[in-house]
Specification:
The chain is an all-alpha fold. It has helices spanning 9-44, 51-54, 66-76, 103-117, 133-162, and strands at 90-91, 126-127. It has a two-stranded antiparallel sheet. The chain is elongated.
Length: 163
């Protein structure tokens, strides 16, 4: 007597589709978490001016970079205060905007942009645009690369697990 074997592949297919959605969400979340941490590393490795270097001698400062900040304000519309370059990192190709962002606000923007725009397989770009990066880049590049490599080696599974 022949044996008849039947299978309901609908349940299996549904299970596989749910697994695919979960894995995709977790992988995309992993990239978002890694991206935010890398932006934080880049920002943390970006030198920041201080008030004493900007203030005129008549106001108790040493005016070391006062002319730079005045030129920056004239040419780019940036306020005469420190912090622009540290808070100007962006997800995707950067565009210059003459506002000074605090680091946490910048990181929130990067996380929101990455969550809304990144799709599995996309190339991730974190960048910044501004008048001082040409001179700052040599001081930012190597420590940031070191941070990226260390985070990748130590935390990549953690990014996946948290997503």
């Amino acid at each position: 007597m022949p044996v008849r074997v039947t299978s309901n592949t609908d349940d299996l297919l549904k299970s596989l589709e749910e697994a695919k959605k979960t894995i995709t969400r977790k992988l995309e979340g992993m990239v978002v978490g890694f991206t935010v941490d890398m932006a934080e590393a880049a920002s943390g490795n970006t030198p920041i001016g201080n008030e004493m270097d900007m203030q005129p001698v008549s106001e108790g400062g040493n005016a070391r970079y006062r002319a730079y900040y005045e030129d920056r304000q004239s040419y780019y519309g940036l306020p005469i205060e420190p912090g622009f370059h540290r808070g100007a990192w962006e997800f995707g190709m950067p565009s210059f905007r003459p506002i000074i962002n605090d680091v946490q606000g910048m990181l929130n923007d990067i996380e929101n942009e990455a969550e809304s725009r990144y799709k599995l397989g996309d190339t991730v770009v974190i960048g910044a645009e501004g008048p001082g990066y040409g001179m700052l880049f040599p001081r930012i590049q190597q420590p940031t690369i070191d941070d990226v490599v260390a985070a990748y080696k130590l935390n990549i599974q953690g990014y996946y697990d948290r997503s």
